[in-house]
Write a structure and sequence with these properties.
The chain is mostly beta strands. The chain folds into three domains: 31-123, Immunoglobulin-like (Sandwich), CATH 2.60.40.10; 146-235, Immunoglobulin-like (Sandwich), CATH 2.60.40; 238-320, Immunoglobulins (Immunoglobulin-like, Sandwich), CATH 2.60.40. 12% of the residues lie in helices and 43% in strands. It has helices spanning 2-27, 127-131, 134-141; strands at 32-35, 38-44, 50-53, 59-61, 70-74, 84-85, 87-88, 93-99, 111-115, 119-122, 149-150, 156-161, 169-173, 183-184, 186-188, 191-197, 201-209, 212-214, 222-224, 230-236, 238-245, 253-257, 267-268, 270-272, 275-282, 285-293, 296-298, 306-308, 314-320. Strands 4-3-10-9-5-6 form a six-stranded antiparallel sheet, with no helix packed on it. The protein is flat.
Length: 321
Amino acid sequence: MHFCLKNRVISLLVLIFIDIMTAIGQTGNPAYHFEGDEVVFVFDIREYQNAVDRETSEYFDFSDLKIYDVAISGNFNDWSERGWRMKKKNDYSFELRKKTADFDDPVDWDFKYIINGKHIITQALSFRDRFYDKIFLKETFDLDVNQIKINVQGSIRFFLAGYENANEVYLAGNFNEWDPKEVRMQKVPGGWQLKCDLPPARYEYKFIVDDVWMHDPDNPIKKVNEHTTFNSILDVTVPITFNLKGYDSSRMVILAGTFNDWDEKGIKMNRKDDRWEITLPLVSGKHHYKFIVDGQWYVDPSNPIWENDGKGNINSVLFVR
């Protein structure tokens, strides 16, 4: 049984590898790739035939357009109006390099190119788009790629109050590729409900009430999406315990990191037996942190993973899965 599953996964990886090599051979570069600790975004003029005018929303042929400025706007920079500007490499291509540490979300990005500050085009058919067909993966490899697992005893509860006269309500988010007809909510007294399980991560979601998309009115945490509406945010966390042994005579130990914007006063650790200790709920991803012992900053002596932040500081690194 395990051997068969392993063979299916290996076959899938082979297909993906062939698809990537074919795409690179035909178009020169995918929309982005990784080099060490950098994400390299590539825009190649030859891969596109038209764009959308930002003011009229009409498509036009831009093959003869003189392109002097290209920027990227996506869910990783809150769909910035200006975007991240790319550097021109040659007559056909522009490039942008970003550190992987600059991205809080998993590699599941949606973005668009802004041409000359006034035209929009979507990224070329990406690695993910070429092979990421949920039905294909399920039927061919028996692999369920959705992160959401519907479970009446699940630890996560989505609830939309009211709308008793609605015919149907669905839940969609980045946990199921925003499929509008896959996760149906159940009508319960006072509203609509869905119980499920989700792995630790930050999720964006919306309700779909009789085909009308809406954010969660009872969730104050939200962000602007590409349509200038809101996506609601849900952080599914896992408890992580930080320990610092010794320092018996210290008066105060503070934990600071990227998870609290390096607040020097926010998280006071507690003295317990031979150590200082604190447990925090963290989302999955990469976190930098340090201990502040009576005003002095220290990396975690029990964690061998350290990293330079590019500003001359060495921080401890924690990966939450």
